[in-house]
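Example 3.2
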Amino acid sequence: MAELLKDMYNYESLHEIAKRIQSVYHPFRVDEFLKSTMDQSWNDLELKARVRKISSNLGRYLPADYGDALAILDQVVSTCSSGFFGILFPDFVEVYGQDEKNWNLSIKALERYTPYSSSEFAVRPFIINQEERMMAQMYAWSKHESEHVRRLASEGCRPQLPWAQALTKFKKDPAPILPILEQLKADPSPYVRKSVANNLNDISKTHPEQIAKLAKDWYGKNKDTDWIVKHGCRTLLKKGDREVLEIFGYQNADCIAVNDFLLDKTTVAMGEDLCFSFYILTDEATKVRLEYAVDYVKASGKRSRKIFQISELSLNKNEKKFYSKKLSFADLTTRKHYPGMHAITLIVNGAERCNADFELTENNM
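Structure, written as tokens:
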């Protein structure tokens, strides 16, 4: 069984970080810190709750003066941060650094810590509590020389950042975000560009017409910006938004014929695969976006749709192409299957063209 992400915070890793802190701050009480952190509630805590427990307890054993505490953490952050593990450093800033008197210290610390483990979660309460001031800071960060800090400018203000506190005001009105995305729309770093695209995709879920307009304005001027726009419109493309599809050249699908759409069986046992195949043929040169939707049966007995991309291609007049796809019904950590009548639908340039039902049954072996 795969190790849970939360288990990266264990006795060995916390003992190591505590010893490193003690090496630069001798009064740090390693054993007491570990005991108070990994108490009787520890095993039941999920990932972010563990992070908060660690950062909160660090404040109990570091100097009471916030600036002095940061100076100590500054000396160990580069040796203790690896991937998500180091998120506890910006979390310390979130817990202890939101007072007005600590504002400047906190902003500089978030900037310093984000290259080691992103400060994207920790900036959000600063935005919520002092939106105008913090968004001005985020815009300033969007011009920073470090790609990590520029990414923070975008990632930190995503309206629907996963695992993060929602920015409800930005879900209602994303206008404060747009100057930052405008500044970063042709950023030289793929790391930053992906964040900009994800921010656009977040906004598209509540303001699709605004992202469609922005996509028209941005697309076709810079190849890096074009990638951002395409990736940022992925939810709208999956929804078959006609305006957005046309931006990328996916016109009406009437010229595209679909033939011999077939399933290899109509009854599938859990753990087995289902195969389907079809031909497409176009009577004029055109761009084609192919997807298929699966209506999965959920635990409640209702069905929920998931859309998968097959291909994006350009076809010449009278060109014919064959496709064969395999769909697995083995359970995954991200999807559990339930018996019942499912459906599969082929989607061409956003339009549903063919569909078929099939039954998923219990595996009685």
